[in-house]
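Appendix B, record 7
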Amino acid sequence: MRILKISRTANATFQNKINRSVIFNYLSKSGPTYRARISKDLNISAPAVSRAIDKLIEDGYVIETKKIITNSGKRPIQLKINSEKGIVLGIDLIKERIKIAVTDFSGEIINTYHGFKGNEKIDVDKNLVEEIKSVLNKCGQGGGIVEKTLNLKAIGVGIPAVINVNSGAVTNAPLYGSLRGLNLKEKLEDYFNVPIYVENVVKLSALGEKNNGEGKNYKNIVLIEISNGIGAGIIVDNHLPRGTYGSAGEIGFSIINNKNLGFIIKNKGWLEKNASVESIKERAAKKIQKGAKTLILDFINKDINNLNPSIVCEAAVRNDKVSKDIISEIVEYLALVP
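Structure tokens (predicted):
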């Protein structure tokens, strides 16, 4: 009987790599701390913590700052993420105007920018490359980043589409037909030579809420995002399920009763057509065209071309009956989704 022998060195190397990743994420979320606290909170042995920290310091990801006062014993040295290691870009690829956030290496937002408007005719990957180059150029011209941090380390892109998370390719894009089949991960990695992470934008919102918002204290959450489309980000037992084809949470195609079984899917699903923010604008426009008396008319100076969903919401907050009725209809549709 042959016995497979596993190298202890390989195991130790791999475990140290895991420890570095876990400790880096711990420092990123918890802020500055010291070795003994890391060992206690993460239940990792003190020697293993020291090995991992030493490597993170050697590679420039973590720095030592000052000695801190504790209740007893030798004063430990505080550790924190090296915010000047480089910059990271976070991109929200939405139809109105794409948004780009520039953060330092600790995750602090340094600046935000708005870019091109998305449409079916635009060459997204080409325009996105040019937009990123423009942002990096602005950073280098005194955009609030010291020169030594102008070192791009990674780019994260959120897309309102179904993504193959392994390849980064768009497999389905109900609101962005021009994105179908596009692989931004490959194209951006080829151009900028840094790690590129592409994910469905609502799933990213759910992760953000889980790590930094109201979901911090819960293992299971569902975040529903209502914009041009409707999607859900689902966290189960602190994990993000994507579904067999990556489309878990695509609730915009839901129907709510047997009267709607004949709904024909074109670019949007039934729920997206009837309960997205765009439908708020359409409902308001129809009521105005039928002569409804509403505060919306004052907000848009009686010009229907000035109408947008946020105006309807503002009028509803001010107790405008027409606007409140529209919002109530949208809420009812959303509440009936199985």
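Remarks on this record: Residues 213-254 form one domain. DSSP finds eleven helices and eleven strands in the chain.
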